[in-house]
Amino acid sequence: MRPIRTAALGAAGVALLAATAACSDSGSGSTSTDSSGQGDGTSVRAAFDAVAAAAETTRETTSARFEAVMRSPQSAGGELEMSGAMSWDPELAMDITMTGEGLAADPAIPEEIAVVWVDDVMYMNMGAGFGGDFQGRDWLALDLTALAEESGDEAAADALSFGLDEAGQDPAQQLALLLQSPEIEVVGEESLDGVEVTHYQGTISVEDAMERNGSADFLTEEEREELIDVMEQQGIESYDIDVWVDDNDFPVRIHQTYDTSAGPVEYEVRYSDFGTDVEVAAPPAGSVVDFGELLRELGEGTGLGADLG
């Protein structure tokens, strides 16, 4: 059962990507650029307005290519690298490749795993070794939302979904998250992969998220409540967020660090080719093993802790 556990840990990383990079509707929310309550000084106002302009520009896009790395506790997969393309409107779709220490440590599965996300289900190609145990079915399907809802173990479900309920976070909303910071700082002008960018940073705490600060109302009330719930459930007191914005007002790099109840997490994603075409299809049904059904068949039910712990 080690490959199943490894797959679940990998799924946590992809779910984090979905939760903190791009997913769901990039739609609503006020776009006022009034910076009252965002700290003192014209530099804070200028930084707020610049990030607000980038958030507005990014709202109009629905897809991008990306490269991401997540460094998390070993219990959540350790270091994972992901690259590929995703779209997030009208719903999340991803076609990516995933590598990581948790995968490399398990000889039963490929060092690289192809992952597609479509119709709210993650499919992971676990390779021929895995397929040999399931009549050639080498794709493992994980409906993380269903697993979290069905599980009687809330902590294990949270670990598996790793913030999936915050899935209304496209790049525009990541900028909106930065706009909840009481003070946004301009770090300076930099060159990133040959592109001239402006580097901004800020910190957002649970208290900051709870205070509406009408000046920074780029998140809907529902999105704000989901953010607060995720932070509280995972023991996150605050996010440190850095954003690099190019001359076209697109975020080309987003970096987050925060402490969870499971340990520290560092996540970075680099975006390119905003507006790229993304076509994703689920694997043929005959090649898929359902993770939830597999657990039930093995007598584990939906109590995820026994298999994932």
What does this structure look like?
The chain is α+β, with helices and mostly antiparallel strands and 309 residues long. It has a single domain (2-297), classed as outer membrane lipoprotein receptor (LolB), chain A. Helices cover 32% and strands 30% of the residues. The protein has 11 helices and 12 strands. The chain has helices spanning 2-20, 42-59, 101-104, 127-132, 144-150, 154-161, 171-178, 206-210, 221-233, 291-297, 305-308, and strands at 63-71, 79-87, 93-100, 112-118, 121-125, 139-142, 185-192, 195-205, 238-246, 251-260, 263-272, 288-290. It has a 12-stranded mixed beta sheet. The longest helix has 19 residues, at 2-20. The radius of gyration is 19 Å and the shape is globular. It starts with a helix and ends with a helix. The relative contact order is 0.21.
Tell me how many strands there are.
12
- The end-to-end span amounts to 12 Å
Number of helical elements: 11
Helix fraction, binned, reads 25-40%
Q: What pattern of helices and strands is seen along the backbone?
A: HHEEEHEEHEHHHEEHHEEEEHH
Please tell me the CATH architecture by its name: Clam
Could you describe the largest sheet, including whether it forms a barrel?
12 strands, mixed
Can you tell me the number of structural domains? 1
Shape: globular
Lateral arrangement of strands in the main beta sheet: 7-8-9-10-11-1-2-3-4-5-6-12
CATH topology: outer membrane lipoprotein receptor (LolB), chain A
Arithmetic mean of pLDDT: 74
CATH class category name: Mainly Beta
Q: Which structural class matches the secondary elements?
A: alpha+beta
Which stretches are low in confidence, meaning pLDDT under 50 for 5 or more residues running? Answer: 19-41, 156-169, 300-309
β content, as a range? 25-35%
Radius of gyration: 19 Å
